[in-house]
Amino acid sequence: MADGKKAKKLLVLGTASDVGKSIMVTGLCKVLSRKYKVAPFKAQNMSLNSWITKDGKEIGIAQAIQAKAAGVEPTADMNPVLLKPKGDRTSQVIVLGEPYADKSAGNYYDSIEEMHGVLRGALERLESEYELIVMEGAGGAAEINLYDRDIVNVGTARITGAPIILVGDIESGGVFASLYGTKALLPKDVSQQIRGFVINKFRGDPAILEPGLRQLEELTGVPVLGVLPYYNLKIPSEDSMAIRKKKKGQEKKESINDVDIAVIRLPRISNFTDFEPLERIAHVRYVNLDEDLGKPDCVIIPGTKNTVSDLLDLRESGMDAQIRGLYGKVPIFGICGGYQMLGRTIHDSGVENGVEADYDGLGLLDTETAFGEYKKMTTQVRKEVVAGGPIFSHIKGQEVWGYEIHMGATKTSNTVFGNDGSIDGTGTVVGTYLHGLFENANVRRALMIYLTEKKGIEYLPEVVMTEEEAYEELAGVVESCLDMEKIYRIIEEQE
Fold this sequence. Notes:
- Keywords: Cobalamin biosynthesis, Glutamine amidotransferase.
- This protein is an alpha/beta fold.
- It has 2 domains: 250 residues, P-loop containing nucleotide triphosphate hydrolases (Rossmann fold), CATH 3.40.50; 216 residues, Class I glutamine amidotransferase (GATase) domain (Rossmann fold, 3-Layer(aba) Sandwich), CATH 3.40.50.
- It is 32% helix and 26% strand.
- The protein is built from 17 helices and 26 strands.
- The strands form 7 sheets. Strands 2-9-1-10-11-12 form a 6-stranded parallel sheet, sandwiched between helices.
- Strand 25 and strand 26 form a beta hairpin.
- Helix 1 crosses helix 16.
């Protein structure tokens, strides 16, 4: 910090993955930003969903959302290490927003001391600019087999000495045992840093939990700071646990418009948050390659961490034939890797699959893609809608926002958004490199108007909530359910 004072810190750990750490940190960032200049931080993130900062660095989407909630610009220091699983026990390692290497778990842990240095440097830079750093752990904190090489839970706790709030998920069952057991299994020095428990995703009357809460406090000497309700999030999901839950719950839910959108569940799917804005206004289902595609009103092929491998799997499963069978009947969108698959050919110099080869795409767009070097395009963009046709004609000339995260370059003569993307002669097959496309209200509206008119049903417009309104709503839940006075005391007690 500019005045020389040491930034205060707060560390949120979880008893397991998907217990609600990210959303709780988001809510805390919003609430606490009213008193402090706040930065989020996650030393190491393993996520299918990433975000591009203004200076072209790639970080986990959760830290970008948390920064926005805090009212600050996302930076690479907020998520210094990002692991993007590619399959075959290999992940692309992103360090300070830049591709570092593809590594197996064993090889990655061989470089863990180097990663410790990276996170220390990131923390030092954040400390020089912010008054409070709200930090997030990863997965379950008590992974006893990883203590000697952990940088994100035990590692962050020891490096910072920060007070810890431990979060448990009651929806998964056994929340009292998981909170008690996690505290008991953590190393003694880290366990002593736990200053409060939070129970998340509760459905019902919190008073029912009171006897258990008091016993947990007596057994551990740690106060329960509150019980958060099950909350219908309006903020993007973080990781693969979220998409697995989407896949489990395929029952048709009430939506604003009776429209069925099928998203192909590629084996190496990435940035599936692209489609969450559509879930608010249509029925979105994620279809595995071995499933019947059915009769959707629209098909979307998403991004992927390996276009060639997923294209080969698409062909082997027969899903490519199912998609082609819908050509001319329903709109077909391809985002990023999905866009590359929609074209005529893909040339891989060995970047994707290790050997130089040419592959036939689905042939629905007149494009050619080449993977020439191990280099990733990462940038935020604003583009003008230049395509016409039945979907985009009435928003032609308007602006859309998005971000690109891809390898390879695609040649086309029929663009959609400025110099990006491609569209076929019918105007119903669309490819683009723009992640976040459906965050644009004009694009969502254009697509839904087309789909409802084609289906012969009334188009019902959505009530659009701004990002700021979503953060305020979440902050209201956090403030009403957590003992914020205790949390402020926990923060202020730091030297």
